[in-house]
Amino acid sequence: MQLPPADIGMPADEIDTPALVLDLDAFERNLAKMARLAREAGVRLRPHAKTHKSTAVALRQIAHGAIGQCCQKVGEAEVLVRGGVRDVLVSNEVFGAQKMRRLAALAREATIGVCFDDAEQVEQASRAARDYGVQIGGLVEIELGMNRCGVMPGADAVELAKRIAGAPGLVFKGIQAYHGTAQHMPTHRERVEAIARASEAVRATRDGLAAAGLACETIGGAGTGTFRQESASGLWNELQVGSYAFMDTDYASIGDEHGANRYTEFEHSLFVLATIMSAPTADRVVVDAGLKSYSMEKGPPWVHGRAGLEPYGVSDEHARVRVTSGPKPRLGEKLMLIPGHCDPTINLHDWYVGIRNGRVEALWPVSARGASR
Q: 372: how many CB neighbours lie within 10 A of its CB?
């Protein structure tokens, strides 16, 4: 871990760059809004730690009413539990005796759940839970159109649920029903239709479980792009939203329910702060933040609050910025870049630098950075 790029109390314009900067006011408004919407819908909130990778963020979400966290890796779960999170769902499949033992060890300290789509995973988890004398919650993940993990909805899911319910050390908890492909569909109508189709699969699975005498305590899933649809479905009762806390250009680029081509449900609060290190021509400047500072699989970042500046030509340590209108930024000036995808961008940094009223107020470690196992 590198030293923080700032000190508490310093002016924001003195932060060393590149730096991962969090607008605390916007961040807190995002947390409060999602918590309020979940309460109003009568559903539980279990934010996704794969986005923020930080116990500091997790505990603030819980303070706003979240029941716990979900994550994708055992390593992330370990960091969360060590940091004081007492209820963690690994919303992903886990396979391998070593990983299962680590998961079982966590269940001695916190409420732990995991997802399954194969009977062999169930057997491994049951063996580890018995060895450690613990109980692990199990959800059946169903395939909703991502073509990734998940057993087919309906009868196949019910059969796997029966295995979980009958396995020593495991407790059947319900259904993992995350439709990730729907989150970034370009129009609101497409997203609504995708969740409507997913609802049919979820309903059939829930009804099949009931017919088999299995209580379905949890139907979890949803994301920042579709959480309103899942909340209103009468099916999903646990939201696993992640990016809402920060936002990025990928989410900002999808359409809203009013037909606009910009999604404004939540505010941009996360930025990569960069310094103009070169200004070689009248229409081009260069900043000191490149591929080592933000993810590029969703395209180049946007410049926040400055029209007429377009990043392009990103390399390891640099990004060129085209000046299309307005005054050319001066050498040494700092720009706030909105990353294309917040999750992998955060994973490139050791620290969040929280700013408020023009000064550094918080330094939070990205405590689960690189927890890929």
A: 10
How is residue 123 written in tokens?
């057997």
Q: Are residues 341 and 202 in the same domain?
A: no
Mind listing the pLDDT tens digit for each residue in 305-338? 999 999 999 999 999 999 999 999 999 999 999 9
Residue 60 and residue 140: Cα distance in Å, rounded? 29
Q: Which two tokens stand for residue 324?
A: 């299309």
Asked if 16 contacts 206 with a C-beta cutoff of 8 angstroms, the reply is no
Give domain status of residue 350, yes or no: yes
Task: Classify residue 360 by its DSSP letter.
Answer: E
Q: Are residues 47 and 78 in the same domain?
A: yes
Per the structure, how many domains does the chain have? 2
- 181 found inside a domain: yes
Residue 363: in which H helix or E strand, if any?
A: strand 359-365
The answer on 302 and 212 residing in a single domain is no
Helix (H) / strand (E) element for 189: namely helix 188-211
**DSSP for 69-106, written as a single string:** EEESSHHHHHHHHHTT--EEEEEEE--SHHHHHHHHHH
Give the closest residue to 150 by CA, choosing from 97, 75, 213, 202: 202
Does residue 100 sit in the same domain as residue 72? yes
How is residue 187 written in tokens?
Answer: 């129009």
Q: Phi/psi at 47 (nearest 5 deg)?
A: -65, 155
Residue for token pair 């990016």: 243
**pLDDT tens track for 31-58:** 999 999 999 999 999 999 999 999 999 9
Q: Helix, strand, or coil here: 243?
A: helix
Name the nearest CA neighbour of 208 among 284, 135, 154. Answer: 154
